[in-house]
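Thread amino acids onto this structure.
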């Protein structure tokens, strides 16, 4: 780890995050952040030159069906379900004066 985490840094971070931490919580946060930074240092040591960058860890492929245009004229069967109809259209109550 290149940089030591100080109590002042933890206080500053908690102020930025609008958190009120007591001394025990500050010490726990400090230990957690130091642990994360140590893990990052371990990751920095890995040789990833031969690994191709990727944007996602899953193989992405289109799972949608093909768009098939159907011009079914089902007007009569649709209007069968209408409580009221007039001139081949749904008839609804007037809602605007």
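Threaded sequence (97 positions):
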């Amino acid at each position: 780890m290149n940089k030591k985490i100080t109590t002042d840094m933890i206080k500053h971070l908690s102020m930025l995050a609008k958190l009120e931490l007591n001394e025990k919580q500050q010490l726990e946060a400090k230990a957690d952040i130091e642990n994360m930074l140590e893990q990052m240092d371990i990751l920095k040591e890995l040789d990833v030159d031969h690994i191709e960058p990727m944007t996602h860890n899953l193989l992405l492929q289109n799972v949608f069906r093909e768009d098939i245009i159907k011009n079914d004229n089902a007007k009569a069967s649709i209007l069968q379900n209408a409580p009221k109809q007039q001139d081949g259209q749904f008839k609804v109550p007037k809602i605007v004066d």
